[in-house]
Structures are given as structure tokens and as C-alpha cells.
Amino acid sequence: MVAVIKGTKAENVIAVIEKIQRARRSRVREITLDLSPTMMLIARTVFPNAKRINDRFHVHKLFYEAIDDLRINLRWMARDMENAIMADCKKDGREYIPFRYANGDTRKQLLARAKFILTKHSSKWTKAQRWRADIFFEFYPELKNAYDLALKLTDIFNPKITKDQARLRLARWYNEVEQLSTGNQFITVLNTFQNHHDTILNFFDTRSTNAFAESFNSKVKAFRSQFHGVTDIHFFLFRLSKLCA
């Protein structure tokens, strides 16, 4: 059975999936999903025998979003600093000359371009990105600490370790996150991880991931964006089946 459900309202999704016989739904043994409480409720309700696994992609993504949020906050602070200096120069009748780092970036440019550095593993940086990262982390050590913790999180998920080993390593990682002297975004991430602790750890049993589904979803979104939305749903699904089936 194929069904397209408008939105992600739990009761609507549950009502559609429950049209499948319970005996068939009970045969589902494993589900990978994101950290959404709505999706967790749906999976728990309609697939009672399935082990729920929070996909590692979404675990990493949430932490990187917190890092980017910190970067954006620092960029606003840099903008405020620049505005204050410009106002002083105007008041004193002096020409404003923006501060530049050794690589030529201004404060705002450094923080803007650092976005691409923070989303890549350090082993994949180009020579120019490595130079920018050295400057960036020297002046913003709080972001370096957060980035190092992101790499440590990756190092927990990459090797094939047991669930007990992962539990111990994650506990140590949680302690390090608590010691970050930055904004509340990392505490929010930590609380989210701890609330989903068991389902995150389930990954280490079979190392299942919904990477294929995420990739397919990205292709669907890219295809949809080419047409600036969808008006004829049936024709859209027909075209999608021809391209991706």
C-alpha cells in the first residue's frame, strides 16, 4: 500500500498506517528515525514490536546546528563591534579601516566563511581552509572546543563497538559537553540526547541507518524545488517514479 499523507500530525499518520493489518505491522523488527517526538510516538504506536533507532545522521546534525548557532551569535557580536568602531571613527572625523586577519578576512568574513569549515571533518579541509581554521580557532576558542567535541562524537559512532562501550564513551562525552562555557544551545542538545539515550544507543546493536531514505528525500526536495512547488500531485508522483524508481 502506498499513501501520501499531508503533514506529520501524529494522529493522521497513525490512522493511515493502522489500516495495515496489525499482524503485518507486528512483524516489523526495527525502525530508524530522527529525534522528533512525533515520529517516536508514531513508531511506538503502530509498530509495537519494533526496536526504535535514532539515526546517527540526525544526532550529528543536531550538534552541528548548535555549533552553527554559536557561530551566528558571535557574528552578530562582531557586527556590533564593527558598528561601534565605525561610529567612533565618524565622530572623530577619521576614516574607517576595517580590521583584517592575516589571511585578509574581516571579523564578519571570518565568521561567515567558517561555516564551511565547521561542517567538514578537519581531514577534508583545503590548504586555505586550514589556514582560516588556525586563525579562526585562535580568536574563537569556544568554537574550537565545540568543534573538537563534534569530532569526538563522530569517533564514537564510526568504529564498530559494543553498546556497552558506546554507553561509556557517550557518558564521558556528555560530561565534556557540560563543561562548555558557551550558550544554552549545547545544554539543549545534551538534554535531547539524554532523553533519547536508549534509542540512540540502539544504533550500536545493528548499526542501522536510514541514510538511503535521507538521500532519497533530498532528491525529492531538489526535484520539487525545480518547479517551485507542486500543484499536480499525481503528475509529480508519476515523474518522480520515472526518475527515481
* Portion in beta strands: under 5%
Based on CA inertia axes, which overall geometry fits? Answer: globular
Q: Helix-strand pattern, N to C?
A: HHEHEHHHHHHHHHH
DSSP strand count? 2
Helix content: 55-70%
Q: Count helical runs.
A: 13
Helix-and-strand structural type: mainly alpha
Measure the end-to-end span.
16 Å
Main sheet: strand order: 1-2
The domain count comes to: 2
Report mean pLDDT, rounded to a whole number: 87
Q: Main β-sheet: number of strands, strand sense, barrel status?
A: 2 strands, parallel
Structure report:
This protein is mainly alpha-helical and 245 residues long. It has two domains: 9-54, no CATH class; 56-206, no CATH class. It has helices at residues 10-17, 22-25, 37-46, 56-92, 107-118, 127-139, 141-157, 163-178, 185-195, 197-201, 203-206, 211-226, 233-244, and strands spanning 30-33, 51-54. It has a two-stranded parallel ribbon with strand order 1-2. The longest helix has 37 residues, at 56-92. The mean pLDDT is 87.
